[in-house]
Every structure is written in C-alpha cells, then in structure tokens.
Amino acid sequence: MQNNLKSWQPHLIALGLFILIPVIYFWPVVTGKVLEQSDIVNYLGVSKEIFDFRNKFHTEPLWTNALFGGMPAYQVSTMYAANLMQYIFIAVAKTMPFPSGTLFFACLCFYILMKVMDVNSWVSIIGSFAYAFSSFFFIILSAGHNSEANAMAFMPAVLAGVMLAFKGKRLAGAVLTGIALAMELYSGHVQVTYYLFMALAVYGIAQLVVAIQNKKIADYFKTVAMLGVAAILAVSTNITSLWLTYHYSKYSSRGKSELTLNQENKSSGLTKDYATQWSYGVGETMTLLIPNFKGGASEPIGQVAQVPKDLDENQGQIFSNYSQYFGDQPFTSGPVYVGAIICFFAAMGMFLIKGSLKWFLLVSTALSIVLSWGKNPVLIFGTGIYDFFFVHMPMFNNFRSVSMILVIAELTLPIMAALAIDKIIKDKEFLKESIPVKFLKNMNGQKIFFIALALTGGIALLCYIMPTTFTSFQNKGEIDEWVQRLKQGSPNASSEQIEQYLANITPDVVKAREKIFTGDAGRTLIFILLSAGLVWVYAKKMIDWRFFIGGLLFFVVVDMYNVNRRYLNDKSFTSKKNMQVPYEPDQADLAINQDSSLDYRVYNTTMRPDQDSRTSYFHKSLGGYSGVKMKRYDELLSYQIERGNMSVMNMLNTKYFIVDANGKGNMAQINPGALGNAWFVDNYKLVANADSEITGLSHFDPKHTAIVDQRFGDYVKAGAYGHDSTASIVMKSYEPNDLVYNSKSNAQMLAVFSEMYYKDGWDAFIDGKPADYIRVNYVLRAMTVPAGAHVIEFKFEPTQFATGEKISFASSLILLLSGLGLLFMQLRKKPTE
User: Fold this and answer.
1) Which stretch of DSSP H or E encloses residue 575?
2) 111, 77, 79: which is closest to 180 by C-alpha?
3) Which of 95, 375, 643, 674 is most buried by a 10 A CB count?
4) What digits encode the pLDDT tens for the residues 552-584?
5) If we measure between CA atoms, which residue out of 106, 25, 99, 154 comes closest to residue 563?
6) Is the sign of the CA dihedral 594, 596, 597, 599 positive or negative?
7) Residue 152 half-sphere exposure, CB side, CA atoms within 13 Å?
8) In DSSP terms, which residues pair with 705 in a beta bridge?
C-alpha cells in the first residue's frame, strides 16, 4: 500500500496543480464574478423562450420561435438527460468555478496522453500546462465559444485511448477512447471533432504502414475493430443530439441550396468565400512562435501606443483608430500562440522523435498549418490543397473559420516538445549521444540543440534586429479602406488632400506596429534563451532534474500567462446579475410587450438581422443569432426581408417594427398589414422550382395567393377549393412546440400558417386525426382544411428524440461501468505494472 501511494504521488501533485493554477488565473470567479462572454450573451438572448418553457414544464420544447421565424431548439439549447457521461462534466463544473474546469480537463486529458506515451510524470505536467494555456483557449473562452474550448480539452484523451489500443492494450485503450470520445462529442463542437478525426486518420495510416512492415495486419484490424466498438458506444451515448443534428443539417444554412440564381462560388455546403473568410495568412503562422507577429488582436493601436506629438487632433484620432493587427483576416480577437519554449523543444523533437510517431506528428502539424491558410493557396500539381479538401472531403465544406484547424498544431507541438524534454531528462549524455535522423547523417544532441536554437531563437533575433525583412506592417487594402472612410467624413476634400493626410499618419502607424512586433520578438528570444540555458546547464550536470523541470514549468507558465492576460484578464469579468439578465428592455420593448396576443413577430431595423440576439430575448424575432439558421430562411433574408419586401413581412406576421426615433432611442411601429397566425387564401400559383418560388415573392399578395412549388402540385390540385368570405381561422393556444387553431368555413379551403415549414418533426392534426401539409411561399406551411368547424394542431415531436434518449442511456451506462471497472483494476495493480 505504501508503495502504491508513493507511485501515485506525482499524479496527485499533478491533479492538485491542475486544480490550483486555473483557479488562481480565474480568481475573480472565486470572488463572485463571472466571465463576460459576448457569445454567451447572444446565447442567453436567443434561448430565453427555451429556458422559460423548460422552467415551466420541466421538459424540452425542441423548437423555438424566438429567432429567424422559428427553428429547432436543439440547435440553440437542449438538455439530453439520458446521457449519463455528461454528469462527470457537470460534477467538475459545479466543483470548480467556470471556466477553470475547462482548463482542468485540458490539463488532465493531456496528462493522460503523456502517461500513455510513457513520458516522465513531471514532464507530463509541463506539457499539460503548455497545451491548456495555449492562447487559443483563452481567446475563445473570452468570446464565449465554450463548446469549442471543451471539445479541445478532450482531444488529447481521445488520442491517448487510440494510442493505448495500438500499444497492445486494446481493452483499456478502447474503454478510454469510448469515454473520452463520448465527452468530446458531448462538448457539441462538430468542427473541432472533425479536425481531430483528420489527425486520427493520419495516425491510423501511420500505424497501418508499421503493421504492413511488421506483418501484423491481423493485429492492426483487431485494434481497429475494438476502437470501432468504442466509437459506436461514444456516438450512441450522444446519439440524440447527433441524430437530430444530422436530420436538420440538410435544411440548415450549412446544407445545399436549391437555388440556381447565383451559381458562382457554390458548394454542397457553405460558399467558399464565406468558408475561407477567416483564413490564416501564410506569414501569420509565425504567431505560433511570436504572438504579436501580426500585431496581436484587432484593437485600436491607440490602446498600446502613444499618439505622436506632431499630429493634429484629427490626425491623432485617425492614428488611434488604426488597428494594431495587420494580418490577412478581416479581424481577430488574438493570435494562435503555442509558446516560445514549446516551439524550441518541438524543433528539437523533429529530430529526436523516432518511427511512425514522428511522421504522425509532423504530417498532422503541417496539414493543420497549410489548411489554415485557406484562400491563401498552396499548390500541388496545380491544385490548391485547401481547394482539394473543400471539394472532395465529406463535410469539410460545412465549416467556416478555417484557421480553427490550427487546434491540431496546438495539440501536436506540445506533444513534440514534451517528448523532446522527456528524452533530455532520461538521457544524461544527451549532448554527446549520436542520434540517427531519417534521410540525414547521424547527429549528436549538441548539434540538434543548436539547430533548434537557430530555428527558433535565431528567427526571433532576426525579427528583432531586422523587422522590416519579414513584413511591411500594413494590411492589404487598409489604405483604401481609410480613404473611403475619410471621403465619407469629408466629402468636400479632394483625393490628393486625403491621400496626403493619410501619408502623414501612416509612417507613425508603421513605427508603432514595428515596436509591438520587435517587443514580442525580443520577448520570445528571452524565453528561448532561458529554456536553452536550462537544457545546457542540466546536460552539463550543473543542476539536477528537479531544478531543470521546476525551471521549465515556471518559464512555460509565466510565458503563457502573460500572453493570455492580453486577451482574458480581470477586466473580462462582471457581476453575475449582468450575465443572468443580459438585456434590459427599452421603450420599444416595453410598448410591444403590452400586446397580449398569443403569437406575432418583431423586426428590429436598428440591428443586422443575423447579429440580433437582443430582440429574441424579448420577442419572437425575424432576426437572431445562429450559424445554423434554416437555409431557406437565410435565403429569404437575403433576397426579400433585407430588401424590405412588405408582402414577405406581412406573411411572416411581422406585427411590429423597432425603428430609431431620430436619436431618441428606439420606438415600436405597428404594422397594420400583418396577416396574423393563419389565413385562408383564395387561390394558389404553381411555380417550377425554388428560383421561381423565391422570386415570385417579389410581386404577390400573400393575403389572397399562395405560391406553391410544383412538387406539391398534386396536393393542391386535389383540394377542390371553394370560396367563403366569412371563413375564419384563429390561434387558440401557443407553445413553441404545440400550436392549436380553430377554423370555420362553409367550403374546403387552403389555409396558410405563418410558421416555418420543417417536415422532419412537425406533425399536423385536424380534430385529432393526422393530416398532411405542404410548403408554400418558400418557407411557410399550408394545409387543406375541410368545410365546417375544426381544431387544427401542429405538434413538434421528432421521433429521433425519444428513441435516441433510450439508446443514449444504455450506451452511456455501458461506458460508465466499463470506465469504473478499468479504474478499479488499475488501482489494484502493483506500482511496477
């Protein structure tokens, strides 16, 4: 027992540090504050209706009408109670104040990966903090991309399980893979998980090559089969959300459009221009080593540099508003920085790591970097690498912000660094040892040391002493943008005057950016020299391993801590009240809320409709905030709503407009033309396709005519519709997932409902009996209603939810019991095992 406790000592110390250091970093949370996250504010805005329903009925609505006219709630906020694995995450979240729990999981999962790779426990701690404290974690947490951060946190554990299985411990590896992948999928960020699977595919190919070389193909496929079972259990644990999302994906903005009006730049998913808008610049990759290589975040340069004294007031204001960022992206919250020290040791790792593991890490890192360049092409045989993936890789074209694929480099570089440090720790004659290097002559450790120092510290030194060699410190198109702004502000100024005006300012902007650049280059150089010095004095036996490890851990944490404080610091926190109640009603909201009608929509003209979560917090909005709005509604926004088509506004039951009251705040305007929740039309117009359907909305009267795609022609032709000027149809009760109407007419008629058409989940009933319905007016529902008095009901009850929850419970129970069994057996082992 005593030996067991001694063997667990470094693990317990690691756990203690993984809890302590994140809590210290996020200390304001301990004092009662919360992290102020813009995306979480948006999330709270669009999910208000869902929360209210959940609190009232203690169940999930699965649909919400609060944003974009209506869409599945499981793309906004849905709880899946049957997934037992989530309670592990919830337990940590309730024990450790957010977001320290996310960093705890990142540290723990990377530590597990290091132990699977037989890395020294103390080195594993260094690697864990290097990974968890990479700048991207803090940048996305500051913005509110919590699911992305959580998905990144569990990536190392998934890789650990796969590696453990290929090391011959198939059962343990499969159990670890299943649990880690279940948590990864629970995080709910498909894009990060997709990129992880790309890296795992590279690892799998590397292992297949090894299996072929060693003639162990059968063992390889046995391992793959075991991991396949684990993956099935992990997917089944999260089957409800995955299944529902899969069914919705073809209807979402990430799906294929039926429109052929503009074929340029189309794909089966997002347009290429939209997907590659946030492409990392080729030179911008240097931020992995020098964080401010492109100036840092898109913040006004006046926040970090003083206005030169020789500029007048107007020039000084323009100077201050220039961005300190001068990279290729439209804007950025900060760079992807893995650490100067990590880059130094990773450069050594390129030579020290052997076998298939080396090629897995190098290929994955290179692929991650090259694909992050997106629209900045790298050509092979005349084809851009990103273009090839965009066209041929399944689902790849559904993801935007291609720079996000750098999450793989953020994982692989700390692995390479940790393996290099582990080699130095375990080999006391490292500097003298002859090390075989593939395709090169054998090198001794000392030569590898100086090569790595030149590749990292040497570059940082050159950046410091010759900064203009590497960049011009100006953004592409930046001058043209400022010329346009000045022309708008000073319409009487000549082009020559404006250009001269800017010419007086630009050199000072360049000098300020150069100072930011060289300051970080010098900073990087210092940390590399400090870590290199530690390696040298340790290898020369001037200090023991404790000082070497302790010094490295200290330098890594200090390096990453100081950079991360630029993007997430004490100013990033606010009171709990501000986050619990993200928006206060203005006079327009208060006026609209006096209306006690069951259901109507509001269009806020003072905000961009695709960036408007505020209106959704108080009303059912035509706008919203979601990257996966319904495809047809997204097109309706672009082609009709944003162009002010009142016929479309009326058919969407837009009862109120929020408008700017000439600088006196917002006011509400009632729309007398809103058609209500449902109405009978006198006739219909058949059109050939989606193009004709959406263009037909430009000139039609929705009160009397319904535009019907010819695919629904048989339905309306069988209607034999009559006419009744006294007919009525009114909403009787409203819940987001249950709409009830009373109708009365003397003839069979076609009723149009001001609700989004989504066949995969919405069931219709007339007097309690199932009824069919169709799509009209590009996005709305319509139904043939017989003569007489009837009760019409629409209920949202996707079968995938109930079935998925049963599968989820069974699968998560198997994984949970398997994990507990594996842990029990591990605790019973002797230290030598």
Assistant:
1) strand 573-575
2) 111
3) 674
4) 999 999 999 999 999 999 999 998 888 888 999
5) 25
6) positive
7) 31
8) 683
Contacts of 391 (CB under 8 A, 6+ apart): 267, 397
Q: How many CB atoms lie within 10 A of CB 310?
A: 9
Give 524's Cβ-side CA count (13 Å radius).
Answer: 33
For residue 434, is it left (φ>0), alpha (ψ between -120 and 50) or beta? beta
10 Å Cβ neighbour count for 100? 24
Instruction: Write the DSSP assignment of 271-298 as a string of letters.
Output: -HHHHTTTPPPTGGGGGGTSTTTT-SSS
For the residues 287-316, what does the mean pLDDT come to?
Answer: 83
Q: Is residue 264 predicted with pLDDT exceeding 60?
A: no
**What are the DSSP calls for 207-238, one per residue?**
HHHHHHHTT-HHHHHHHHHHHHHHHHHHHHHT
Rounded Cα distance between 728 and 574, Å, is 51
- Determine how many CB atoms are found less than 10 A away from the CB of residue 493: 14
Matching residue, tokens 């404080």? 565
Half-sphere exposure (Cβ direction) of 721: Cα atoms closer than 13 Å: 20
Distance CA 599, CA 78 (A): 22
> How many residues would you count in the chain?
833
Q: Report CA-CA distances (Å) from 437 to 79, 352, 413, 580.
A: 52, 8, 19, 57
Q: Which residues pair with 735 in a beta bridge?
A: 738
Q: Would you tell me the crossing angle of helices 355-372 and 340-352 to the nearest 10 degrees?
A: 130
Q: Give the residue carrying structure tokens 């319509």.
A: 782
According to the model, what pLDDT value does residue 20 have? 94
215/206 Cα distance (integer angstroms): 14
Kindly provide the residue ranges of all beta strands, DSSP E only, lying in 695-823, ordered along the sequence: 705-709, 728-735, 738-745, 749-756, 762-766, 769-771, 774-776, 780-785, 788-796
pLDDT of residue 269: 57
**164-173 long-range CB contacts below 8 Å, 24 or more apart?**
164/116, 165/223, 165/226, 165/227, 166/207, 166/223, 167/116, 170/222, 170/223, 170/226, 171/226, 171/822, 172/822, 173/223, 173/226, 173/227
Q: Mark out the alpha helices in 652-711 (DSSP H runs).
A: 690-696
Q: What is the DSSP letter of 720?
A: -
- Taking 80 as the threshold, does the pLDDT of residue 22 lie above it? yes
Looking up tokens 């709005």 gives 629
Closest-CA residue to 60 (of 47, 45, 70, 42): 47
CA–chain centroid gap for 626, Å, is: 12
Residue from 756, 696, 635 nearest 258 by CA: 635
DSSP 683: E
Taking alpha carbons only, the member of 309, 327, 317 closest to residue 502 is: 317
Q: What residues contact residue 600 under an 8 Å CB cut-off, 6+ apart?
A: 620, 653, 654, 655, 656, 674, 677
